[in-house]
Amino acid sequence: MMFQGLMLLFPAALLSVAASQLMTFNVTDPTTGTPVQCDRCPPGTFLLARCTSTQRSRCAPCPAGSFTELWNHISKCLRCGVCSQDQVVKTACTANSDCQCQCKQGYYYMEDREECQPHSRCPTGQGVQTRGTADEDTVCQICSNGTFSDTVSAHQNCTKHQHCHAAGMYLAVRGSTWHDNVCTTCEDHKSRDGAEYLREILPTFFVHHKIPVRRLRRIVQKLPSKDGSRHAGTSGLSTSALNEQLNAWVASAAAEQIRQLPDILTKAGMNSIGERLHHKLQRIDSNLAELCASRNEVHAVFMAE
């Protein structure tokens, strides 16, 4: 039992020695030349004057803009850190702790690069499952059946397709993961070409298919204007600027010009995308014709009775 007691006291003694070493440091008295054990200064202070054989260590508080976090015997406090341009102060610097930084809003800390990076934006067809934080990136998810996202965003969730169930309303364009349902009435269809319904989803169509900037330039150059002329040079324009020009054209183009888009895409080297748009327009025309034809048949039977 006595042996066990000694074993328990031995580690405690070691810890006591280690603690005393952290709280003190050894120097030589400049006057007497004898070794002296001096006290260290506590966090938030620095060593103003070493101890001697007759005087203890003299410590002073860290001035504003500086700090010490540990017991020390340094002659000057450490300068407070500065957050980078993509960071904000999470905890301000104090006399006994440095400032703590975190990524500013819209950014997260990427450990591999040891820097803040912008939150990822979910593409069209995907919505935000979990918003990004200062420590985590955005988490995206593909929109489930019956929902869509037509924006590139770090905040937008998938939205439910609108229902074309109101009296006299019919589905003109079935929604997908990247665009909403487009509804119509047969009365409206009489005065509108099928291309008018296609117009509503075209801006998202071009964003969703991530068309390279060179191809976008070709497409914009081939767009017919109202007077039949072609557009001016597009050299040097960015993707966003080209999309703005394309959207402006879509908003003002006549229905017969909208119908030329599949052929324009093909001539610009975008065969598969041109074919998809052509099939989309065909489905719209077919869908509208069938819906309104069935309504007219029902109406005719009702009137005959």
TrEMBL record:
One of its GO terms (cellular component) is extracellular region. Keywords: Apoptosis, Disulfide bond, Glycoprotein, Repeat, Secreted, Signal. TNFR-Cys repeats lie at residues 61-101, 102-140. The keyword Cell cycle does not apply. SMART domains: Ephrin_rec_like (SM01411), TNFR (SM00208). The keyword rRNA processing does not apply. Residues 61-101, 102-140 form the TNFR-Cys domain. InterPro entries: Death_3_fish (IPR048522), TNFR/NGFR_Cys_rich_reg (IPR001368), TNFRSF_decoy_receptor (IPR052459). One of its GO terms (biological process) is apoptotic process. It is found in: Secreted. Its main location: secreted. Disulfide bonds join 62-77, 80-93, 83-101, 122-140. SUPFAM superfamilies: TNF receptor-like. Residues 1-19 form the signal peptide. PANTHER family: TUMOR NECROSIS FACTOR RECEPTOR SUPERFAMILY MEMBER (PTHR23097), TUMOR NECROSIS FACTOR RECEPTOR SUPERFAMILY MEMBER 6B (PTHR23097:SF116). This is TNFR-Cys domain-containing protein.
